[in-house]
Each structure stands twice: as structure tokens, then as C-alpha cells.
TrEMBL record:
Protein name in UniProt: Transmembrane protein 163
Stretches that traverse the bilayer: 6-35, 47-68, 83-105, 117-138, 144-164
Annotated signal sequence range: 1-17
Protein family membership: Belongs to the TMEM163 family.
Keyword terms, alphabetized: Cytoplasmic vesicle, Endosome, Membrane, Signal, Synapse, Transmembrane, Transmembrane helix, Zinc
Taxonomic source organism: Sander lucioperca (Pike-perch)
GO MF, any single term: zinc ion binding
Top-level taxon in the UniProt lineage: Eukaryota
Amino acid sequence: MMLKVDIFLLAFTGTLCFDATLDVLSSVIVLWRYSNAAAVHSAHREYIACVILGVLFVLSSLCILGKAIHDLATRVPPEVDDFLYSVSVVSGITCAVLAVAKFMLGRVLTSRALITDGFNSLVGSIMGFSILISAEVFKHHADVWFLDGTMGVVIGLIILAYGIKLLKDMVPRVRQTRNYERFE
């Protein structure tokens, strides 16, 4: 039983670590998008940033879906100790605040890349809180062990759909603007 709990804790912290890494990468992409003063209004850079974010979302969704499906197939119940509870709360709150700030700034700057980065932070917040909700429900109703895995599948599918839509919308725009703007 202890080995099963240790494997779950490792997988859960790995998921949080992967989510944090994805959030950092998406923020780095947005920083790159605005890194060149001459390219602040560059539609081409905006579209490239969105394409890269779309690829990251597709890859992220595949990892999330893989873990969630594995957890459902092996009937892994959600279990959270005090450390993971703290990490989940801090991650959920921090990502929620970042999401609101990125959405507001993205709207002011009319930047789809920044709004997409905000969406990524929002997903991170939802993931942080979903494990807590799943663990609490499981404590009172052991027959609902599948809630965390199901939430993972739903979140993974949403991220996948968003990533595919982003790629579908932005790849043609990158092609259209590549000859009009050349900033490095």
C-alpha cells in the first residue's frame, strides 16, 4: 500500500511540475513575442508565438490524457498529504491570479498569445484545485475514486481542442505574414 501511495505522490508532483514547466514555457514564449521593441506590433511574431503555444498545448494534453487514462485503468485513488495539499492550494491560487492578470493585459494589448498564456494559467489553477476536490470527495465516498482521472481526461481534451484550434487558426496566418515582417 505504501508503494502505491509513493507512486501516486510521485506522479502527482510530476504532474504539478509538468504543469509549472508548461506555464513557464508559455510565459517565455510570450516574453519572446514582446522582446524586440521594433516587433511589439508584429503580427508575425504574435502568430508564431500562438503556433508554438498550440504545439505545447497538444503535447501537454497528450501527457495529461496519458496519465489520466493510466490512473483510470489502474484504479488509482486520489490521496493528498499535507505537503501536496499546500502545493495544490498555492499553485491553484497563484495560477488563478496570473490567469486574471494575463487575460486583462492580453485584452488591453489585443494579444492572442497573452490571452492563450492566461488560458494556460487558468488550466493550471483548475488542475491544482481539482486534485483537492477529488481527494475530499473520495474521503467521503470511496466509490468515486475515478473523479480525479475523469477530471484529467476532461482537462486534457479541453487543452487538446484549444491547441488544435490555435494551430488551425494561426498556421495560415504565419504563412501569410512571413514575407511582410522580418524582425529578429
